Amino acid sequence: MSNENKDNLKKKKKKKVHGRLNINLSKSEFMNNNEMRSNKLFGKICLFAGFLVLFCLVLNEVGVFKIAPVIMRITCIASAILFFIPFVIYYLMKRNGEWVKYFMITDILIVVIMLYSVLSYHVMMMWLFPLVSSIIYFDKKLVHFAIFTTIPAIVLGHYLACTFLLLGDDPLRTVQAAMLYGAFPRIILFLSIAFVARQVTKKASKMLSNAIENSNEIGRMTSGIQLVMSQTQSLMGTRDMQVLAGRMVKNLSDLLTLMLKPEHAPHGTVGVLDGEHFYTVDTDGNPNNIARDLGDDIGFEFNNARFKLSKHVEGATSYAEEREGFINIRFYDHGKLTGFAVFRQDVESDDYSMKEVLNIYTYSTTSIINNTMLTFDMFRTQEQLAYSLAVVSENSSQETGQHIRRVSEYARIMGKFICQNEEQLETFRIAAMLHDIGKLMIPKEIIEKPGRLTAEEFGVMKKHVIYGRDIIGNAPGEVMEMARHIILHHHERWDGTGYLGVSGEDIDQFARYVSVCDVFDALLSRRSYKAAWPAQKVYEEITSQSGRQFDPSAVEAFKKCYVEMLKIRDKFPDDENDEENLVSVNTQVVTAENDKFNEQEEQKKRRAIPKINIDPALVTPISI
Questions:
Q1: Whole-model pTM above 0.70?
Q2: Distance between CA atoms of 183 and 235, rounded to whole angstroms?
Q3: Between the CA atoms of 96, 99, 104 and 105, what dihedral angle is there, to the nearest 10 degrees?
Q4: pLDDT per residue over 99-123, tens digit each?
Q5: The three-state (H, E, C) secondary structure of 334-397, written as one string
């Protein structure tokens, strides 16, 4: 296989990206592929023709034909060899390239001249063989080559047939007769057929170009729709408008890159309504304060152009348009502007496929924006409810005090090892606040008893996990659903000796992590029935309970988060004036094992500097 064709195959493989259709198919690539298929077909035809010539030789040998045996043998064997050459070139030598098809046409022309010289008018139709063979390539240049080489070949063939005069019944016995009554009329007939063949090739080539263009357009649109579908999946479930804006600007940039194939990544900005503000973010993921409040409108400048958008437009629906070098997208919910996108358009406009794909993106994203707003409001309602319950729980006992807040922050730190995304991590943080909500139902004298609880009192205390679950009840939402499992299982032990006797993997995963957080904070804190433990002793106790009281994976996460959790403990003390109860990271109460881990992490950082991505969700929204 030639280097040229190897490169074509490599390009073909590269263009099949992410399982999507190849939208970069060109006519030249199609012609290259068709050329290989045509060479293959041509080789088979010539192989068949070679055996047919040998069959004619056999018929002559047995007396069916009566042609000079020696001349017939030489001609048929030579013709068969020439007919076999195209097959050998493609199938055995694996040769391809522009020269192959021209060589094949020339090769069979030589065969036709040889056969006509011997068999004369009996093989007259073979003069069309090179022309017909050239048509299968859909190549006008090759058709012209076949036409202009066949004409002199006809003249030469008639001259040789007249000169050799191997057939006794051939009426054209003089050169003048052979040219005037043989070659000339057959050239005229051939040119007539060649004209039709050329028109057919021209028409087929045009139809092929249109078919490729339409196929590319369909593939391009299909790829765009497939990308929109995958992008829609990435937007679903988002409950933070700022995170949504960051994902939208990335999605639109990818979509426009696919549809337009610009030299540089498209530059633009996206804004979404976040409460009373429009949070805007650019294609680099950085928030940008481009929007200004103009009363009933918002205004902004982008890429030396000014835009003015009405906040409310009666009956307005979402749309996408190209205008004056920009791609503009507007998102509306019952006439209320909920978002916008503006991207610079540097290529030729009036692109039907791109408009349709952008419209599909706009319609699908509109509902996602609206759903995200509702989800955000619902989530914040759950968060406020959790805070309210936590505050009530804190106020019910001085001992629990900041305990609930600290456990929530511990969960946020350790939750990075089990949460799949930022949304789930935030859900975990809030749900963890409710782990001891059931203690609201436990008598205060039991909670704050200065000594060890009796068996009866401890039996009452254990019921707080059931009470907590019942307080949450069937409250809807992700936070409450997760909180139900945490409340019920956070006092279970890995070995099955906990409150309810649940063990191992049957314990809710999030509850296993809250269990570590809860015990860590309880041991570090002073209670009516005990003094605060030293941080070093707490560390040793928790790590020693791996596989017994605690899930081993939760203990491993605890080890990695230990120092950061100590900082949280100092940040939210039970009594800000009680310096004795602070554990302060400055005392460097860290085990040798933790020192080793931190040193390993530092070495990793020195070996490879990570790429920093700015999370739009961590940036304060921009007021307009």
A1: no
A2: 75
A3: 140
A4: 888 988 999 999 999 988 888 878 8
A5: CCEEEEEEEEECCCCCCCHHHHHHHHHHHHHHHHHHHHHHHHHHHHHHHHHHHHHHHHHHHHHC
